[in-house]
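Appendix B, Record 12. Input sequence as logged:
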Amino acid sequence: MSSVDAEQKAGRSKPWLPEKWDCEADVVIVGYGGAGVCAAIVAHDAGAQALILEKAPFGGGNTGCSRGSMRIPSDVSSAVEFYRALTQGTVDEESIRALAEAMVEPPRRLEEWGAELEYLPLANTFPALPGSNSFNQSASLARTARQKEEQKAAGGRVYATYGAQLFAFLEHQAKQREIRIRYETPAKELIQDPVTKEILGVKAASPGGTELYVKASRGVVLACGGFQNNQEMLN
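Logged structural output:
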């Protein structure tokens, strides 16, 4: 049996695989908001080729329409204590620690990329929970002179959205690295080996509506928003 015949036979024995992959990257990121672009930047800087799939004709996601500030815990151990109490036994310890460790990271990472941050006092959320005191400040990109004047004129109470400013900074980082982005390309489902459970890629839809199979040789990152748009998960 020739190698071509063997490959075709193997393909027929794995019906979960597409007949052909339309494009490929080391890491495929679903969603071009703050989380997605950060994942792409980190993957790129680690030596991987990243590709972002975005449903909308532009980036930004939740980050682009948020106020742009981040609640940052002061230390990992307090954050673990807080999230453990907050989740009331519904989340495993490994996941809680992973989240806590990641939550203290953004300021250092953003400053490495050239961001100037400012820190503002923050009222405790759920102050009765242990570890809540560690969330005593928020971090955001330093405001421009114009934004500071607007805040001063409003008596210090400005409710403008600066998330667009944060995303513009992150988008610039992606452009500098020439990270590939495919707009109007919503992901439809993950392609998984049912035996090994390995995620092999993503089935998406092209702007014209045709099926697009994207191979991920080293992994897929789902950064396609929280579950606030999923009524079933909300229920």
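The first strand starts at residue 23 and ends at 30.
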